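Translate structure to sequence.
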């Protein structure tokens, strides 16, 4: 479904990505980890068209995404969240979802009088568990609820591939758990790539992990394989290795 080949990104001579290959199969929940500056966000930016790679190809369902505009990539079925949730505070939860859902629709369908809640919005509401808050303005939501709303807004656009950048950052333990369940559920009928630093979260919810380091793929595999890899332990030096990829002690 997604196939990156030899992706290179130079920022004024600085190699942020130095030849990344990444293959993600349909229906996978893939975690992307790596120390600060490893290139995780840059990789997401390349897939979504925010950053154009110096070289390489991004195959998605038979299309090469390189050089395409961001909105075109969204239309092809690729959606992303950012590290901080982007929601419209003055609008209600429902209005935010409705707006997001209309994003992929042609203009003529928006000009027709629409009644009630569309199926996509309803589904996004129930999946994220935000039904009770549907009529509240997004400005009053807690940090966790905002993140879920943003994920809901993404779902309302009906993407096939979702890219989530640190969805549990700043969340309480309970919120993390709920997010883990949400992501697991979403991955049942979508392909999902999650950038995440939180190792506890990874241990609980990740199956396949790709480790980036200094703009390259260091290793890939199951959580256990990656945790046991001495090279992974090494790049996380500075933190105790057990904090980074350890055994949960
Ligand atoms: N627009 C830019 N111009 C110049 N350098 C950049 C730009 N964007 C990112 N970089 C550099 O590229 C490298 C990779 O950054 P990136 O944000 O992709 O890392 P990351 O793995 O997402 O890190 P973090 O975990 O801190 O978010 C970093 O050294 C960063 O300073």
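Result:
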């Amino acid at each position: 479904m997604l196939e990156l080949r030899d992706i290179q990104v130079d920022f004024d001579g600085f190699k942020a990505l130095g030849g990344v290959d990444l293959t993600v199969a349909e229906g996978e929940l893939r975690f992307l980890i790596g120390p600060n500056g490893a290139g995780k966000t840059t990789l997401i930016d390349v897939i979504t068209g925010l950053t154009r790679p110096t070289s390489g190809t991004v195959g998605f369902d038979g299309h090469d995404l390189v050089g395409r505009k961001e909105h075109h990539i969204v239309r092809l079925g690729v959606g992303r969240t950012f590290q901080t949730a982007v929601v419209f505070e003055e609008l209600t939860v429902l209005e935010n979802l409705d707006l997001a859902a209309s994003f992929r629709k042609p203009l003529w369908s928006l000009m027709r009088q629409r009644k009630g809640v569309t199926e996509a919005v309803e589904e996004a509401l129930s999946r994220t568990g935000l039904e009770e808050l549907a009529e509240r303005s997004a400005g009053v939501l807690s940090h966790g609820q905002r993140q879920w709303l943003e994920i809901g807004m993404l779902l309302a656009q009906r993407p096939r591939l979702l890219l989530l950048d640190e969805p549990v950052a700043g969340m309480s333990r309970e919120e993390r758990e709920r997010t883990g369940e949400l992501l697991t559920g979403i991955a049942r009928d979508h392909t999902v790539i999650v950038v995440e630093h939180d190792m506890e979260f990874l241990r609980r919810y990740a199956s396949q992990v790709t480790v980036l380091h200094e703009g390259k793929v260091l290793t890939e595999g199951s959580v256990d394989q990656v945790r046991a890899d001495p090279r992974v332990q090494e790049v996380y030096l500075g933190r105790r290795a057990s904090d980074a990829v350890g055994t949960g002690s």
